[in-house]
Amino acid sequence: MFNTARKALFAALFAGLAGPVFAADIPEPVVEEAPPPVYEQPADIGGWYIRGDIDYHKSTVRGIDYMTYTIDPCNCTVTPGSKSFDFGKLKGGFSLGGGVGYKINDYFRTDLTADYWFKSNFDGGTSDLLTTSTEVSKMSALLLLANAYVDLGTYHGITPYVGAGIGGAHVKWDTVYDPNTTETNPGASNWRFAYALMAGASYCLTDKVILDAGYRYSHIQGGRMFEWDASSAGPGFDGGISTHEVRGGLRYQFGGNNGCSVPVAYQPEPEPVYTK
């Protein structure tokens, strides 16, 4: 009986001593550090921008009418009438412009622009039953427009767009005169209604700078072209000016994303991985 109790005591002591030794040999689980989760960066599309443009344009004058006066020598009465230029042509010219705008989202932006058209030469002619006359002058204009554009998506950094604008133009005609005679008429200057239609494409140079190239058709309402002069007839009125423009320029966006950058995709946070 004593031997049995002694064996039981030795077994208990052995188990108590061996447990920590065996436990020390068992490796504890190691938690691997998971990579930090990557979240989608919000596409902050939108922001203020400024722009600068240069163009070459070709304008067409839609008819020119002017007042005439017939004097009856018998009773000294004056009878007013009207005549039209046989033709009138404007040569091509250049313009410089600038503006400020706001990109609302991926597909819509607006801006206010001002373009100064440098002087274009005008050649025209009139005639009656007895004589013909050559008429020359120059025309310049300041075109102010409020514009809206629809961007049609970005493909490899290129964004095609269409747009329209509405506003006004200050048209200035120089003196209209016949270089072969002494007849002159002072040129007129006035504000007129104007609108424009645009199409083009932009290209991302950087995340802030965009190259813009396109076409714009603009129309300026008709108005007074020249005043009356005692040595000639008048006043005269042009029927409106239609202009085709080839434009190029740069836009610089101050804030937000101009649509050129691709946001980082969302990755869910992974579960911890345990290894033995």
Write a brief structural summary.
This protein has 276 residues and is mainly beta.
Describe the secondary-structure layout:
Layout: H1 2-25, E1 30-32, E2 47-61, E3 64-72, E4 77-84, E5 87-90, E6 93-103, E7 108-127, E8 132-151, E9 158-173, E10 176-177, E11 184-185, E12 189-204, E13 209-220, E14 223-226, E15 236-238, E16 241-253, E17 273-275
Antiparallel strand pairs: 1-17, 2-6, 2-16, 3-4, 3-15, 5-7, 6-7, 7-8, 8-9, 9-12, 10-11, 12-13, 13-16, 14-15
Describe the protein in words.
- The protein is mainly beta.
- The protein has one domain (48-253): Porin.
- 9% of the residues lie in helices and 58% in strands.
- It has one helix and 17 strands.
- It has one helix spanning 2-25; strands at 30-32, 47-61, 64-72, 77-84, 87-90, 93-103, 108-127, 132-151, 158-173, 176-177, 184-185, 189-204, 209-220, 223-226, 236-238, 241-253, 273-275.
- The strands form four sheets. Strands 2-6-7-8-9-12-13-16 form an eight-stranded antiparallel β-barrel. Strands 4-3-15-14 form a four-stranded antiparallel β-sheet, with no helix packed on it.
- A hairpin with a 6-residue loop joins β10 (176-177) and β11 (184-185).
- It is elongated and about 105 Å long.
Work out the count of structural domains: 1
Strand order of the largest sheet: 2-6-7-8-9-12-13-16
The proportion of residues forming helix, as a percent range, comes to under 10%
CATH architecture title: Beta Barrel
CATH topology: Porin
Task: Describe this protein with a few key phrases.
single chain, 276 residues, mainly beta, Porin, eight-stranded antiparallel barrel, 17 strands
